[in-house]
Write a structure and sequence with these properties.
- The structure is a single chain.
- The two termini are 17 Å apart.
- The protein has four helices and six strands.
- The strands form two sheets. Strands 1-2-3 form a three-stranded parallel β-sheet.
- The longest helix is centred in the N-terminal third of the chain and has 16 residues.
- By secondary structure, it is α/β, with parallel strands linked by helices.
- Helix 1 runs parallel beside helix 2.
- Helices cover 38% and strands 22% of the residues.
Amino acid sequence: DFDEQLHPLIEVRGARLVIDLSHCQRITSAGIALLVTLIARANMKGGRVVFANPAPFVMTVFEMAKLDRYFEICDTTSEAISVITTPPPTEKAYLCGNWFVTEHALFRVLQ
């Protein structure tokens, strides 16, 4: 299961993860909640997650939910690897209870 495989990896302080979404043609609200939680946990541990190769539908969902402003998303895996080796952007996002909090927005995570 995706959650069981990734969350232990991101619990390592300073972990850097590139997630290739090319085989993910659709995403549900539960999938979005899982990714939001993953990003928030990474931020709390000083880690970083970059998504690569999102399918058009998945990218549209990210854009409609305005998550493309908070997720680091690259068109290719090689670009994502390059991005993850550079310093992260200044804005961070955190999970606080059922809330995803950034400097500019607040989202409720529905499960």
